[in-house]
Design goal:
Layout: E1 2-6, H1 10-22, E2 26-30, H2 33-42, E3 47-51, H3 59-68, E4 75-79, H4 84-92, E5 97-100, H5 105-116, E6 127-129, E7 132-135, E8 140-143, E9 146-148, H6 152-162, H7 171-179, H8 185-198, E10 203-206, E11 210-213
Parallel strand pairs: 1-2, 1-3, 3-4, 4-5
Antiparallel strand pairs: 6-7, 7-8, 8-9, 10-11
Helix pairs in contact: 2-3, 6-7, 6-8
């Protein structure tokens, strides 16, 4: 298996490469975000080990661009940043795993083996249903390319519906996953808000059952 290691700490990158080669991996190295991105785009890799703080383009940008380009090679982010929001940001932009520095090589190796067992299938960070696209990482929503401003709760409701397209979702299910409350009237209220902002054709009421997000609005 071939691994791409992108890290501007050259001593660390060479050390990781030697360890992986000793385990039977073929390894290529890059030391900045620009060259790392180009190698990841055009090389045939089974996984990518990617530092976040890179010259040229940071690791977040590299992952985001790869996913936009349809490159679904598993990515393990490396960073000295160990805050919860740092980890969440990395996973939200499309990385598959996150490991903080300093790290154990044994753990790095185990995580790489886990990643290479997964098929490199499309795992887009953004969700698209019909004309609507929702990006959990940036909290941006567009319909037909036009941006739609949503509140936090409206966004959460739309995201749940978009992750279950063309399926009837009951009010109690929405209440449980979006509000964790017991007043179903709030569901009806926020569905109304979404319809006013996104168009009434997108969310279909199924009487006595709940709501269905139409993949092909009428």
């Amino acid at each position: 298996m071939r691994i791409l290691v992108v890290d501007d700490e050259r001593t660390l990158a060479r050390s990781v490469a030697r360890g992986l080669q000793a385990e039977g991996f073929a390894v290529d190295l890059a030391h900045d975000g620009v060259s790392g991105l180009e190698m990841a785009r055009f090389g045939e890799y089974d996984a990518i080990v990617l530092d976040i703080m890179l010259p040229g383009r940071n690791g977040y940008d590299v992952v985001t661009q790869l996913r936009r380009d349809g490159v679904w090679t598993p990515v393990l982010l490396l960073s000295a940043k160990d805050g919860d929001h740092d980890v969440a940001d990395g996973l939200d932009v499309g990385a598959d795993d996150y490991l903080t520095k300093p790290f154990s090589f044994v753990v790095l190796l185990a995580r790489l083996r886990a990643l290479t067992r997964r098929p490199a299938a499309p795992r887009p960070a953004a969700v698209t249903v019909g004309p609507v696209t929702l990006d959990p990482a940036t909290h941006e929503v567009t319909r037909g390319g036009e941006p739609i401003e949503l509140t936090t709760r409206e966004f959460a409701l739309l995201e749940y519906l978009m992750r279950h397209p063309d399926r009837v979702v009951g009010k109690l299910e929405l209440l449980d996953h979006v509000w964790d409350g017991d007043d179903v009237n709030v569901v009806e209220q926020y569905v109304g808000y979404l319809r006013r902002k996104l168009g009434r054709d997108l969310i279909v009421t199924v009487r006595g059952a709940g709501y269905r997000l139409a993949a092909q609005p009428s």
